[in-house]
Amino acid sequence: MFTGLIEEIGKITAIRKGKNSYQFSIKAQKVLMETQIGDSICSNGACLTVTSKNSNEFTVDVMSETVEKTNFSALKIGSLVNLERALRLSDRLGGHMVSGHIDGIGKIKSIEKDDIAWRIKISAASSLLLQMIDKGSIAIDGISLTIIKVDTDYFETSIIPHTAQETTLLQKKVNDTVNLETDMIGKYINRFVNQSQTPTKNQSKSSVDMDFLAKNGFLS
Asked: Tens digits of per-residue pLDDT, 125-177?
């Protein structure tokens, strides 16, 4: 489990490609402190297991399922990645609960300066957008961010200068892809509502729907 607060930007130093998988070596420093082989490091939003390490580099395996759900196939030697070690129970939860399980890929539609911040518009599949709400949380390449607006085929977020400096997001360009993980609560609500509206043979249709949740304070 992670918080979406990036600790360090790492750099891909080696890529070994299998039939449908990858092995990445990533240069880093801070996230290697106290890290052991077998520990998890969130890399561009994906929870990956450290398989080997030395003082300034670690290696992870990326299986085919992860390759299919992420933009990892576009990474090259020299690519920068956002890194975060797993959450400890004693840590402050400054972001939101991030599992490191990528739900899909988004594409950057625009990046615009907005006073001290930058507004970023990202297109995404409707199945992912249904799990988002205005002022809800989203992990973009592992970064915990707040959603400003959700539309029919895109959502908007904004980042402050500190986030821009500490992550890779502003190094992206229009049409670049990003890894997306929607908020866990949104996933559960979406699944619950969908199952409630399609009852089985021995079930009656539930009265719980999106309007019910909104009226009772579950949605803003």
From this structure: 999 999 999 999 999 999 999 999 999 999 999 999 999 999 999 999 999 99
CA–CA gap between residue 152 and residue 90 (Å, rounded): 39
Measured distance CA(16)–CA(85) in Å, rounded: 23
Residue ending a domain, among 85, 113, 137, is: 85
For residue 199, the enclosing domain spans 186-214
Integer Cα distance of 126 and 85 in angstroms: 30
Candidate from 88-102, 116-130, 183-197 with smallest mean pLDDT: 183-197
Q: Rounded to whole angstroms, how far apart are CA atoms 171 and 164?
A: 9
Last residue of a domain, one of 69, 85, 101: 85
- In this predicted model, what pLDDT tens digit does every residue of 102-111 receive, in sequence order? 999 999 999 9
Kindly state whether residue 133 falls inside one of the protein's structural domains.
no
Neighbours of 130 (CB within 10 A): 17
The number of distinct structural domains making up the chain is 2
